[in-house]
Amino acid sequence: MDSITVLMTSPMSDYLENQLKDRFNLVKLWTYSSKTDFFKHNSHSIRAIVGNTKIGADAELIDSLPELEIVSSYSVGLDKIDLRKCQEKGIRVTNTPDVLTDDVADVAMGLMLAVVRRVCECDRFVRRGLWPKGDFRLTNKFSGMQVGIVGLGRIGSAIAKRAEAFGCPISYYSRSEKPETNYKYFSNIIDLAVNCQILVVACALTEETHHIVNREVIDALGPEGILINIGRGSHIDEPELVSALLEGRLGGAGLDVFENEPEVPEQLFGLENVVLMPHVGSDTVETTDAMADLVIKNLEAHFLKKPLLTPVV
Amino acid sequence: MATPNHPGNHDHQSKELPQVLVLEPPPIMKLHGDRFLNDFQLLKAWESPLPLDQFLSIHAQSVKALLTPGRYPLTRNILQLLPSLQLVVTTSAGLNHIDLPEFQRRGIAIASAGDVYSEDVADMAVGLLIDVLRKISAADRYVRKGLWDTKAEFPLGSKLCSKRVGIVGLGSIGQEVAKRLQAFGCRIIYTSRNKKPSVSYPYYSNVLELAADSDVLIICCGLTEQTRHMINKYVMLALGKEGVVINIGRGAIIDEKELVQCLVQRELAGAGLDVFENEPHVPRELLTMDNVVLSPHRAVRTPESLTAMCEHVKGNLEAFFSNKPLLSPVMNI
Fold first, then answer.
1. Are A313 and A92 in contact (CB under 8 A)?
2. What is the Cα–Cα distance from B304 to B43, expressed in whole angstroms?
């Protein structure tokens, strides 16, 4: 298939890049100094896009590639892809669900434990040589804390299963109730926030869920409450989150995603009750390879006219 | 709130209250005061100007019960000054501060912390493991240093699911750790003094074989003569270059010098440590490593655990003085 031209939008994985190079004619968007230059050389040859959470396939890109047949995203999130346009033009879209579910759920749990038990703060305390001067203070108990999950999809369910092993009562807000679980359902996010101690954002980013965690929700969660985000930065009204943390109106936060990555509000850097990660929810050797393999398999299936493995559109 | 600190100071008839000797206040007393022990007459040795042996000779000859923290070594010399002692209640999960053979010889009962701390310690063990494998503290440092927007890429972590987790010591704490990690898809195997027929995890009779079959070792056992430096160079080499060690037991269960060497020479992938051989001192080399997570012996320090321990201590003392079975007697020494 090395006559088929595939566009990779950003340097997301060396392994994936090499696999694509071996199988297709690979074009790398980031090697072009300007959009015009890129379009001049490639617009009529590109039949597939491999995008990720940084650069997907927006309307402009899709419209400028008349031979585009498929967008295979190196992510489970689809917020960087103009799905409506793909649907209109009959362009297939695939993503990487399931292979990254465990890893993202693990980071959500790790962030919860890190914030509640102050793991990172303890580590800083020891490294700064403060232990001989006096003991570290008490931290709250994690086991048994009430966990509220926004979005009980694959990742939300995986988080629930893990938190249950710590004796945490689970409640959730989702587009629809899931009667097959015995978790407590709330029909709106405010009630969920009022009734939990740790609120975890695990839903997809859509127009409806943009800023779903706003000032009202943060206030409902309260000064002892903890917010964990492993979804998308735009799920949370970030300036509101920052003021709430600075003013002590929210107890703590564990964040793997931000509204304007890689920018992170610097006011958070001085806070001990937050844990910050650079969008690494699925970044393990095992999972990144599995995601890459899934991207490749979807592309090969498409060009061999076989059923796609994980189609979205 | 702390009550006025005078030996034997209570509002009601102090002579009728059972006596409990306290050589040094345990953390629960430092943080909660001693109101929870109002039904007892506390003999507070540390408040006396007398040297300990004189204090005990004068005041503690008929004392039957002793409340002690984990940091205070209960040696034969102290025991010799307590001829009437029948019970020691310790607030520590570990028993390495107690001369167990001497206590056994004297027929003195020991009431341990039971499983009061087990959930908190297990939570810390899991928190440390996720941090080491997924680099949470390292990621937090990376973001706070402003490195995300630079060419310095953050390294990939390692997946928890399917990892073989070898638990060293499947007591109350070990079982809580196992229960949690199973939910993450880890495969649990263990070694313990005795095989536990009630669990289905594969049992290994020695730690070297356990390490050879593990990706992670979590130290959940107590410190005894048998377990001192049990995690030695051979065990760590058997665990392998991708191996991770988590210690929430006692520092001396691991040969710390060898651990540092293995980490420096990359014979081990990482470590999460809440305890050290010479607390509060931590080997200098660890302080700059990105693949270790360090904690200042905080695994049990939650207000919930401390409150529960107050109730537990009171419960054990009440049981003893009313001739009922102890809540958490230490059986096999």
1. yes
2. 27
Using CA atoms, how far apart are residues A287 and B237, in angstroms rounded to an integer? Answer: 26
Compute the C-alpha angle B117/B323/B102, nearest 5°: 65
Residue B143 to residue A142, Cβ atoms within 8 A: no
- A284 → closest Cβ in B158, B279, B288: B158
The yes-or-no answer on residue B250 being catalytic is yes
To which H or E segment does residue B61 belong? Answer: none
Distance between CA B317 and CA A123 in Å, rounded? 37
A271 burial via Cβ count (<10 Å: 0-12, 13-18, 19+): middle
The whole-number average pLDDT for the span A99-128 is 97
The answer to whether ipTM exceeds 0.95 is no
Give catalytic status of residue B242 as yes or no: no
Residues in chain B: 333
Q: Is B267 marked active-site? A: no
Q: What is the DSSP letter of A13?
A: -
B129: Cα within 13 Å, side-chain hemisphere: 33
Q: Give pLDDT < 50 ranges for chain B.
A: 1-4, 8-10, 12-13
Span A147-160, average pLDDT: 98
Task: Pick from B144, B163, B276, B304 the residue to mutate for testing the A interface (most A CBs within 10 Å).
Answer: B144
The answer for residues whose C-beta is within 8 angstroms of residue B202's C-beta and 6 or more apart is B189, B190
Please judge whether A167 and B119 are an interchain contact, meaning their C-beta atoms are less than 8 angstroms apart.
yes
As a whole number of Å, the end-to-end CA separation of chain A is 23
Identity of the residue in A113, A126, A277 whose CB atom sits nearest the CB atom of B140: A277
Average pLDDT value for residue range A13-19? 95
Q: What is the structure's pLDDT at B1?
A: 45
Q: Which of A121, A138, A268 to mutate to test the interface with B (most CBs of B within 10 A)?
A: A138
Give the H/E segment covering residue B313.
helix B303-321
